[in-house]
């Protein structure tokens, strides 16, 4: 039966949303419609309708590669000018310690591991940096971290401003921005399991040895150990390995040569990682201010909802600012107490079509429970 243009949307709506079909994809909807109906642009119209279906947009996972090509962080030009911070939690008590502050130099890959009794405040974190970084390596140009409460407070921002250091924060639910620290923490946890499997409460006594082991191993990113890249020499393990004495000018020339080699290796590594990562990514669609998008619930736990049955996207929300080709700021309702800046891999554009008109009123997003257990409803957080 031929379908006139003015009722094609109704036919597709019947085939796509009926109880006997339940929102199938393009191919199945097309096959269902073809059993009884025909018009010249059936596939095109059905594809347009389904891409605009809000039920599908909210509840179906995407099978596309993540949006947003990899953008490597700028390459530092010297040791300890750009550092990254993170915390390792969930450890068994060891001599009163249960948390580790991991600090990594993004140039040399050198690290410091600091055992702590609990997650510190912003003021204590600043004091730890003074004690374990600034007095040894000087003031960095940039401090990279996630969006933990220590790094979002006014105290931390004023501390960085007083030092003249830039504070860089990862975008919401996108820890890959601080990937070097995340990878360092994985290595740290693996080493802890190796040396503390028989006595897990002894991890704090093993921490200095783990730090030395990491700093003495050759980094795959630079081709040198962190000791060599940051200090200009490899500390000897045996008396026979003692280096021969060299003059100060020779040492300076060797250190500069090491830095140049490290920079070149970092650029090559960044390009290699970018090529490998982009094989599994796709360019993000161009976004503009005022555009509506869906927000992924991958890292947002919906309150009182089974994860299996919870919507995969919530919204739609309006883009208030395009910060960069990789991140946007959304206008979120007050009930969502989460940071409004998101990586483009966590959003997807809202598609509209005359074949599938939007409902008269969008349902409000369900209450959310954040990944840290806080409930995003009302004016204050509360623990679950």
From TrEMBL:
InterPro entries registered for this protein in UniProt: Integrase_cat-core, Integrase_H2C2, Retrovirus_Pol_polyprotein, RNaseH-like_sf, RNaseH_sf, SH3_Tf2-1
Keywords: Aspartyl protease, DNA integration, DNA recombination, DNA-binding, DNA-directed DNA polymerase, Hydrolase, Magnesium, Metal-binding, Nucleotidyltransferase, Protease, RNA-directed DNA polymerase, Transferase
One MF term in the entry's GO annotations: aspartic-type endopeptidase activity
Domain Integrase catalytic: start-end pairs: 75-234
Keyword Nucleotidyltransferase annotated: yes
KW Magnesium (keyword) present: yes
Transmembrane annotation, as ranges: none
Alphabetical GO biological process terms: DNA integration; DNA recombination; proteolysis
Protein name per the record: Gypsy retrotransposon integrase-like protein 1
Species, as recorded: Nothobranchius furzeri (Turquoise killifish)
Lineage, highest ranks first: Eukaryota, Metazoa, Chordata, Craniata, Vertebrata
